[in-house]
Amino acid sequence: MGELRRDESKFFNYFRMTATTFDDLLGRLDIRVRDTSFRECICPEQRLAICLRYLASGCSFKEIHYSYRVGVSTISKLIKEMTHVIWENLKTDFLKLPDTEREWEDIASGFERKANFPHCLGAVDGKHIRILKPAKSGSMFFNYKEYSMYLQAPKSS
């Protein structure tokens, strides 16, 4: 992280956000960690970095394992935990449902004005996230030339 922070363009290319945005996001999240008698914990900054690198790149857990020197199973657990922390800490600020009929009408008029979609109240966008093929799944998760899951997220006007 230290080396990336010295070059803003490399930091942005690696995480798909500026260092300032990364620090702001880190400050908004309630990431609770503590050392045990067996090992030191992975610090909040590194936890967020691992999660964001996975989300920004679609790298496999194994690739991230080599970059961060953290076990593959630890990365799997960490990404699940961090995406939950991000959702719980940011959902009310960034995914607010309209409270009034007027707010719903404003959303619909925005979709009609910007995209020529009348009566539209939302849209879904997505990204394929590479995964290891689950046992006995056949071709269920096979997409294009790899195994992946399709992550979807709502978009507003």
Quick take:
This protein has 157 residues and is of the alpha+beta class. It has 7 helices and 3 strands. Helix content is 52%, strand content 13%.
Order of helices and strands: HHHHHHHEEE
Total DSSP helices: 7
Radius of gyration: 19 Å
Q: Estimate the mean pLDDT confidence.
A: 86
> How many runs of DSSP E, i.e. beta strands?
3
Percent helix: 40-55%
Largest sheet data: 3 strands, antiparallel
The secondary-structure class comes to alpha+beta
**Beta strand %:** 5-15%
Strand arrangement within the widest β-sheet reads 1-3-2
Distance between the termini: 35 Å
Per the principal axes of the C-alpha atoms, what is the gross shape?
A: globular
- The poorly predicted ranges are none
Organism: Pieris macdunnoughi
InterPro entries: HARBI1-like
Protein name: Transposase
Topology:
Elements: H1 2-5, H2 8-15, H3 19-28, H4 44-57, H5 61-68, H6 72-94, H7 101-115, E1 123-130, E2 142-143, E3 146-155
Antiparallel strand pairs: 1-3, 2-3
